[in-house]
Amino acid sequence: MDLSKLTSKLTKTPKRMGRGTGSGWGKTAGRGNKGAGSRSGKKLPYIGFNGGNIPLIRKLPKRGFNVYKPTEYQIVNLQDIQEHLTGISEIGPKALKEAKLIRSEDKPLKVLATLKGTFSLKARFMADKFSQSAKKAIEGAGGAIEYLKR
Q1: Whether 115 contacts 81, CB under 8 Å
Q2: Environment class of residue 105 by beta-carbon count within 10 Å: exposed (0-12), middle (13-18) or buried (19+)?
Q3: Which has the closest alpha carbon to 27: 37, 35, 17, 42?
Q4: What is the pLDDT of residues 134-144, one digit of tens each?
Q5: Do residues 129 and 112 make contact, with C-beta atoms less than 8 angstroms apart?
Q6: Do 96 and 75 form a contact (C-beta atoms < 8 A)?
Q7: What is the pLDDT of residues 31-68, one digit of tens each?
Q8: Complete domains list, the chain, with CATH
Q9: Which of 25, 55, 97, 140 is exposed most, by the fewest CB atoms within 10 A?
Q10: Cα separation of 84 and 138, whole Å?
Q11: pLDDT tens by residue, 108-130
């Protein structure tokens, strides 16, 4: 074995384009005759370019309306509040965070009325949103509702 005779595909020299007709890559240098591809400064097609055909993303129908930045609410059910927070008169984001029912005090909060029995906790509830059935359940138990202004 002779080290001078070793070759590797990694050290392959690139084709020398446009160096005369005898090279096989002369005249148009593999670019074809006319069009944008033969001109200098031609940009590569964008991702999804389908060779001039209609790209898949333009074939798919547009449906509905997508909100750019939707507000994602942290959801708490009255059943969980009744189980974890019994002797508290004010139930807000801070109390719910301490009871580990929500992850963050800063994010918007919505109270839903998913109950197995009847709701009997008389307290003042502070949240960004309440469902209609949650309002009825809280006010029916003698509690009060307060909307947070954030």
Answers
A1: no
A2: middle
A3: 17
A4: 999 999 999 99
A5: no
A6: no
A7: 889 988 888 888 777 888 888 899 888 899 988 888 88
A8: 17-64 (no CATH), 74-147 (3.100.10.10)
A9: 140
A10: 16
A11: 999 999 888 889 899 999 999 99
